[in-house]
From TrEMBL, chain A:
Keyword Oxidoreductase: yes
Listed name of the protein: Xanthine dehydrogenase family protein molybdopterin-binding subunit
InterPro entries reported for this sequence: Ald_Oxase/Xan_DH_a/b, Ald_Oxase/Xan_DH_a/b_sf, Ald_Oxase/xanthine_DH-like, AldOxase/xan_DH_MoCoBD1, AldOxase/xan_DH_MoCoBD2, AldOxase/xan_DH_Mopterin-bd_sf
Domain of life: Bacteria
Species assigned in the record: Streptomyces mesophilus
Automatic annotation (TrEMBL), chain B:
FAD-binding PCMH-type domain boundaries: 1-222
Protein name: Xanthine dehydrogenase family protein subunit M
SMART domains recorded: CO_deh_flav_C (SM01092)
Molecular function GO labels: FAD binding; oxidoreductase activity
Top-level taxon of the source organism: Bacteria
Length: 701, 333
């Protein structure tokens, strides 16, 4: 291919931008098939027990209500792998907010009114929703893929006791909610035995496969479209109950059915980040080298599904120490099922580890950047595999240079501006390199234009755009000549937009399909193409998921400056800066947007976002966006995101690592460490809201 | 959502007559709270009487120097009005600290006073709440009470009033003008909202069918140094953990006039009369401020989750008093 073609890396504008800002981009709830009916779910009003009776009389008398479904009359589904999808199948209530009925009506208003009129009787049982590290039911889960369970190197406890310098601390991260801008929604329609669903999902191929299995259909009788998706942050990474209910209601009523979940129901049914308690024991020699690392994480899961927030996974990657133990424990409780939320495991785990590293730096009397540089390594500590590339040191050094770290007075409480104490902090970041098999088709038309087809999902990241860039470079043509078709399960099968793996997985297949097509075009020697054009197909099964001799991860460093108001306990972030080593950056514009978005979410995790499991009722107190505080514009300062050029031949044909999650990793630690530097007081429970900060300042004063 | 009748009123008389003639009526202003509550099923009116287009959207100055705010003046317009910014900065600041720009563009003076608590148990039909359903119990007492009251609460209810504007009005000794079937009357803003007692379902002293027509700001507070301080969980668009409105007049090194009202602490804006009494005639020192505020807050009874509100309220009140004591008086015109 000619050297002049360089679509990859360019700050290409996202292709659907004009559609989105003009309102012509349609989301799942915006499809209105003829005769469309509307559904509204009825959440359980108890935290544990059984439904003993369903009285739909009043609901059915609401004008416009067509049908009330419950476990008494809903169609039987095949048993799903994911128990949260077995909706309206039996009488049990595993947590408050679990769906116990569904009302279908001619209008949204009637469905909602009808849902309020359904009378459910329960046999209520005592519930237990309180996470405790000493809970008798806590267990160490099976280590499924190297990220959970328990890993041991050497004799961590003995080494810890024998070391000259120790930190033994406990950090708490509350439940957190994904709350994408677009709530989960689906519009489902059956026509001649064919099910078509518009779903707000991060991966329509999986939704199709799951619906086909649940309704006992061949996969080719189901089409799932996710053309535009307003964010997911993991909560749309798997099918959710709404899509099953929409398909079920459409089947029963014989009409298209739309189901858009109300914001207040999301916390109970679309997953959330489990709260975690982290006990961190770090031991070092006097020369600041780590001798022992013990990271024990306790989280919860629901009664119906095991999900482990793998908070110690990153600790297995970060710093070498001859002795280490990393242990996950989960407690099954009567709570909504936790699930994936942006950087599951890494986000809370690196908050705890990188905060504890800051405490260790204080104990050692060394600069926290220096402590991390002192404990850098070329080899992944747990696996002993060499890193394909790391460059953490370069991120720290470049970040320190840009941030002006050298001018920092290391003494806590050394910058006082009236009632505001100013401080700065640093934390490292990491996220694994993931990729899954994908299929793709590339097609050349006689007019010199191309289309690539792959069931990728653009959840706001710019997937359409970057895949066109991948294709253009592989074809050796300008990016304007390449169209991208994504967002439908009728396209070549592809994995989800999740695990920071979408671009790598889809791009790999697109690259291979385009490379094959280019080869065929070259072989044809410039002969005119047939009118329908020619295609090439790729499937990266066995390639994208092949084992590697290398440990592959992205790394980064976050720097934060905060002001802490000693009158109010308010923390305001004044500056945030991230530097990343994430392979080749494929689109400078959309990549920066993702880095910055991750940092903002990390800011929220540090200062504003927190959910409370109500011990009396068994649900989350903060159920809407008035109570669950994502950062507002006024909370967000100027954010800088930079990256270093990283050439890593062991990744994928594009040389890229994932960038969607690393921005949230470590950001909360950098902010928390800055709060310590500002005040001299260490807070170990997120979020750092005024009540906690003021109480800590008063106790420390 | 329950179907309802919509009536647009063309005059105050028409509005009150329409209300009196129909059961379960509600006046509709900006709708920023009422419509939300209707969607949640907390409010289930038969009839909405739209008063947002009544000729009550003026801000006018009377010859005695007092200023009348019409009930339908939008919060954004009120906050930006030169008379308010110049003479009653505490009111402008309080308004601008509430909600978001879009909500303030819609919300009205009267509606702001009548917004209801954001207590999550009040908003959730699946949980007990004596305010929503008398006799059903108080979910917050059993559940999570971090955002709830520390002053003036009852066994029945620990909710707080969410308005910022109302806190400033209480500190300004404003009068709320009402028009009902029995004719007009006025109530002091500080007494317009009630403490919950055993009737938490009643937020205010409004009688059935009475309409807020306006609010009068007396001239006594005009031009005195005044300010509003609000602490919340994020920098914008959140309800107060605690807030305070202060009007302070110092002459010849003595406190001549002082009015203090707290938000976020009680079922109504909490006028700190005992603190005010302790300060009048005193030198405006840090010690005097602290003593006075502690006197006021000594009757606080924090719940399990909100003990922090007492030191927080003390800090912001003392800090604001100190700040205003050092500030020059604003011009009165």
């Amino acid at each position: 291919m000619p050297d002049t073609v360089k679509a990859l890396g360019a700050p290409t504008e996202r292709r659907e931008g004009p559609d989105k800002v003009t309102g012509t981009a349609r989301y799942a709830a915006e499809y209105r098939p003829d005769g469309c009916a509307y559904a509204w779910p009825v959440p359980a009003g108890i935290a544990r027990g059984k439904v003993t009776a369903v009285d739909d009389t009043a609901a059915l008398s609401v004008p416009g209500v067509i049908k009330v479904l419950s476990h008494l009359n809903a169609p039987r589904l095949a048993e799903p792998d994911d128990a949260t999808l077995a909706v309206l199948q039996d009488e049990r209530v595993p947590h408050r907010g679990w769906y116990v009925a569904l009302v279908v009506a001619d209008t949204l208003e009637a469905a909602r009114e009808g849902a309020g009129a359904v009378r459910i009787d329960y046999a209520e049982e005592d519930h237990d929703v309180t996470l405790r590290t000493d809970h008798p039911d806590a267990y160490v889960p099976e280590d499924k893929d190297g990220t959970s369970g328990e890993h041991v190197r050497g004799d961590a406890e003995a080494a810890f006791e024998s070391a000259p310098v120790h930190v033994d601390v406990e950090y708490h991260v509350p439940p957190l909610h994904n709350h994408p801008m677009e709530p989960h929604a689906a519009t489902a329609q059956w026509q001649d035995g064919q099910l078509t669903v518009h779903d707000s999902s991060q991966g329509a191929t999986t939704v199709r496969d799951v619906l086909a299995a649940l309704f006992d259909l061949p996969a080719d009788r189901v089409t799932v479209v996710s053309e535009h998706v307003g964010g997911g942050f993991g909560s749309k990474g798997t099918p959710r109950p709404h899509v099953v209910l929409a398909a079920m209601a459409a089947h029963v009523t014989g009409r298209p059915v739309k189901l858009a979940l109300p914001r207040r129901q999301l916390p109970a049914v679309v997953g959330h980040r489990s709260p975690t308690v982290h006990r961190l024991r770090l031991a070092a020699q006097d020369d600041a080298t780590l001798l022992s690392v013990i990271h024990e994480v306790t989280g919860y899961t629901s009664r119906i599904k095991e999900f482990v927030e793998t908070g110690a996974a990153a600790t297995r990657v970060m710093y070498p120490s001859p002795h280490a133990r990393t242990t996950h424990r989960v407690v099954p409780l009567d709570v909504p099922s936790p699930s994936w939320m942006r950087a599951p495991g890494e986000a809370p785990g690196m908050y705890a580890l990188e905060s504890a590293m800051d405490e260790l730096a204080v104990e050692l009397g060394v600069d926290p950047v220096h402590l991390r540089l002192r404990n850098d390594t070329d080899t992944e500590p747990d696996s002993a595999k060499p890193f394909s590339s790391r460059h953490l040191a370069e991120c720290l050094e470049e970040g320190a240079r840009r941030f002006g770290w050298a001018e920092r007075d290391a003494r806590p409480r050394s910058r006082v501006h009236g009632s505001v104490l100013v401080g700065s902090g640093v934390a490292a970041a990491t996220y694994p390199v993931n990729a899954s098999p994908s299929q793709a088709v590339a097609h050349a038309f006689p007019d010199g234009s191309y289309v690539v087809r792959v069931n990728a999902t653009d959840i706001g990241t710019g997937a359409r755009t970057v895949l066109a860039q991948v294709a253009a470079d592989a074809l050796g043509v300008p990016v304007e000549r390449v169209r991208t078709e994504i967002g439908s399960s009728d396209l070549p099968a592809a994995p989800l937009a999740g695990g920071s793996s979408g671009t790598a997985s889809w791009g790999w297949a697109v690259h291979e399909a385009c490379a094959r097509l280019a080869e065929r075009l070259t072989r044809s020697g410039g002969k005119e193409l047939p009118p329908e054009g020619i295609s090439a197909r790729a499937d990266t099964a066995g390639t994208a998921d092949a084992d590697s001799d290398y440990a592959r991860h992205a790394f980064g460093a976050h720097f934060a400056e905060v002001g802490v108001d000693t009158v109010t306990g308010e923390v305001r972030v004044r500056r945030l800066l991230g530097v990343y080593a994430a392979g080749r950056i494929l689109n400078a514009r959309t990549a920066r947007s993702q880095f910055v978005g991750g940092i903002v979410m990390g800011l929220g995790m540090a200062l504003t976002e927190g959910s409370t499991m109500d011990p009396a009722f068994g649900d989350f107190t903060e159920s809407d966006l008035a109570g669950y505080h994502v950062p507002a514009h006024a909370d967000v300062p100027v954010i800088e995101a930079h990256w270093i050029d990283e050439e890593d031949p062991h990744l994928n044909p594009m040389g890229s690592k994932g960038i969607g999650e690393i921005g949230i990793v470590g950001t909360a630690a950098a902010i928390g460490n800055a709060v310590y530097h500002a005040t001299g007081v260490r807070l170990r429970e997120l979020p750092l809201t005024p009540d906690r900060v003021l109480t800590a300042l008063d106790a420390g004063a | 959502m329950k179907p309802f009748r919509y009536v647009r009123a063309h005059s105050v008389e028409e509005a009150t007559a329409a209300h009196a003639g129909r059961a379960a009526s509600r006046y509709l202003g900006g709708g920023t709270n009422l419509v939300d509550l209707m969607k949640l099923g907390v409010e289930r009116p038969e009839t909405l009487i739209d008063v947002s287009r009544l000729d009550l959207d003026g801000v006018e100055e009377f010859s005695d120097g007092s200023v009348r705010l019409g009930a339908t003046v939008r919060n954004s317009d009120l906050a930006a009005h030169p008379l308010i910014r110049g003479r009653y900065p505490v009111l402008s600041q309080a308004l601008l600290s509430g909600a978001s720009g879009q909500l303030r563009n819609a919300a009205t003076t009267g509606g702001n006073l009548l917004q209801r608590t954001r207590c999550p148990y009040f908003q959730d039909l699946g949980k007990p709440c004596n305010k929503r359903e008398p006799g059903s119990g108080c979910g917050a007492r059993d559940g999570v009470s971090r955002d709830h009251a520390v002053l003036g609460h009852s066994a029945q209810c620990v909710a707080t009033h969410p308005s910022d504007m109302a806190v400033a009005l209480a500190a300004l000794d404003a009068q709320v003008e009402l028009r009902g079937p029995q004719g007009p009357r006025t109530l002091p803003a500080a007494e317009f909202h009630r403490l919950p007692g055993d009737r938490p379902d009643r937020d205010t002293e409004l009688d059935h069918g009475e309409l807020i027509t306006g609010v009068v700001l007396p001239s006594s507070a005009a031009g005195l140094p005044s300010a509003y301080r609000k602490v919340r969980d994020r920098a914008s668009y959140a309800f107060a953990l605690a807030s305070v409105a202060v009007v302070l007049g110092v002459e010849d090194t003595r406190v001549r006039t002082v009015r203090i009202a707290f938000g976020g602490l009680a079922h109504r804006p909490w006028r700190a009369l005992r603190a005010e009494e302790a300060l009048v005639g005193q030198e405006p020192t840090d010690e005097a401020f602290l003593r006075a505020i502690d006197t006021e807050l000594s009757e606080a009874e924090p719940l399990r989750d909100n003990a922090f509100k007492v030191p927080l309220a003390r800090n912001i009140a003392c800090d604001l008093l100190r700040h205003l004591a050092a500030a020059p008086a604003a011009p009165t015109s």
